[in-house]
Amino acid sequence: MSTPVPTLPFTKMQAQGNDFIVLNGFEHNLPECTHEFIRTITERRYGIGCDQLLILSPSKHADAHMRIFNNDGTEAANCGNGLRCVGSLLLDSLKQETVSIALNDRMITARKTAHGIAVEMGAARITHQTVAHVDIEIGNLHSVFFEATESFPEDRNIEIVTGQVADHVYIDIIERGAGRTSACGSGACATAAAIWHIEGHHRPQTIEMPGGKVLISGSSDNLILEGGVRTVFTGLY
Predict the structure, then answer these.
(1) What is the pLDDT of residue 6?
(2) Does residue 1 surpass a pLDDT of 50?
(3) What pTM did the predictor assign?
(4) Dihedral angle sign, alpha carbons of residues 193, 122, 114, 181
(5) Greatest alpha-carbon span in the chain
(6) Which of 194, 150, 152 is nearest to 174 (CA)?
(7) Is 33 a catalytic residue?
(8) Domain annotation for the chain: domains and CATH numbers
(9) Which of 133, 148, 157, 164 has a 20 to 30 Å separation from 58 between CA atoms?
(10) Is the backbone of residue 177 left (phi > 0), alpha (psi -120 to 50) or beta?
């Protein structure tokens, strides 16, 4: 008899086209997250395919702890759209009105709203500013460019503002470790924080990305990211 091949349950989810593989360490023993494993499972032709791999595990201080891996094998510190997807899973499974998700540097809360899933992302910090861009730290690093007149740094996510009509902002995204993506939740938050910093207000911002729109409200001390998420499929890898 042949030896059975181990299988790994997964959930594929997306938010505004930003797609994720979610592995649940509560219910299953997970393999070691080696560079090779991450690259293989996230590759779109030979694996399942996604922008980021999300790993859930128990936490002493939250409903779950989440790790984030880009599809090039590097680890990321924050992911707003991934948090909304995981928040949706936890809200459904735990039957709670709110859930908490621990990252390495902050605690996130998620809840359902009329527009989908909202997460409180915590604070955004302005670290540098030029005429062309604003640097934002929101767990991970972002540079929000208003004019593409400077070379883009490679150690952070890049948001390029391509248009703005009042409080409706259009952006393109280049994510560190994933390349061009359809959406980036923390990038949408960074864009709103940059606009609030420059324009001197905290009005809610609709951030429209190639994959769809999200709403950013709150303030730079605690940004709230809100929008739809969807489970695409589940399976065994």
Answers:
(1) 72
(2) no
(3) 0.92
(4) positive
(5) 70
(6) 152
(7) no
(8) 9-121+228-236 (3.10.310.10), 124-222 (3.10.310.10)
(9) 157
(10) left
Decide if 157 contacts 173 (C-beta within 8 A): yes
By C-alpha distance, which of 102, 106, 101 is closest to 123? 106
Separation of alpha carbons 225 and 92, rounded Å? 19
How many Cβ atoms sit within 10 Å of the Cβ of residue 108?
A: 24
- Write down the pLDDT at residue 7: 86
Residue 118, SS3?
Answer: strand
pLDDT tens-digit map of 181-230: 999 999 999 999 999 999 999 999 999 999 999 999 999 999 999 999 99
Sign for the pseudo-dihedral over CA of 219, 220, 221, 227: positive
Counting Cα atoms < 13 Å in the Cβ hemisphere of 81 gives 31
| Catalytic residue flag (residue 189) | no
Catalytic residue among 50, 85, 184, 189: 184
Q: What is the pLDDT of residue 233?
A: 97
How many angstroms separate the CA atoms of 201 and 196, rounded?
Answer: 5
Instruction: Give me the catalytic one of 50, 79, 85, 189.
Output: 79
Residue 5 has pLDDT above 80, yes or no: no
State mean pLDDT over 11-32. 93
What sign has the CA pseudo-torsion 68, 72, 74, 78?
negative
Beta strands in 132-229 (DSSP E): 133-138, 140-145, 157-165, 168-175, 179-180, 205-209, 212-219, 222-227
Q: What is the pLDDT of residue 149?
A: 85
Strands 222-227, 212-219: pairing is antiparallel
How is residue 92 written in tokens?
């459904």
